[in-house]
Design goal:
mainly alpha, 3-stranded antiparallel beta sheet, 52% helix, 12% strand, Superoxide dismutase, Mn/Fe_SOD, oxidoreductase, metal-binding
Amino acid sequence: MAFELPELPYDYEALQPFMSKETLEYHHDKHHKAYVDNGNKLAAEAGMDNLSLEEVVKQSFGKNAGLFNNAAQHYNHVHFWKWMKKDGGGKSLPGALQKAIDSDLGGYDKFRADFINAGTTQFGSGWAWLSVKDGKLEISKTPNGENPLVHGASPILGVDVWEHSYYIDYRNARPKYLEAFVDSLINWDYVLEMYEAAAK
């Protein structure tokens, strides 16, 4: 299936002041679009353009770096836009998610600290993740476009720590961006949706 650039699920001003219209325009319209365009070209060249996005990511990992980088970044961003919403974030988590975070990660405050730390300590470009692996939640970080799919896990929340995701709004203050993401942007309903799908 061909990769397609999804519409943002909110308008360009919706996430202000935590993520500006300018950031969303560059990040979605330029960066994400480039992953889609390059990914389609490289998937066709590799004979993988009939596979699902998840399959392209898994099958290209370690074998076709160009295709993997673009396909994985497309996958990451398809979900990244949905992992945010206006008036998101905070401690009011859906019950099933709260229960899992309490039992697997030591509660919300520890999750928050560990997730922000994963994003802060990812050297260079990459992502911080909350995933389900072997039936339990775990926090991890990956370089560049890599994601938990290629490590036997199902990502249910990710934050982009490439500079294009925050530099316009936060300059080099990555921890401030991560705090704003967790406290004010996370769409916990979408995280729950992915958690329920992963836990099946």
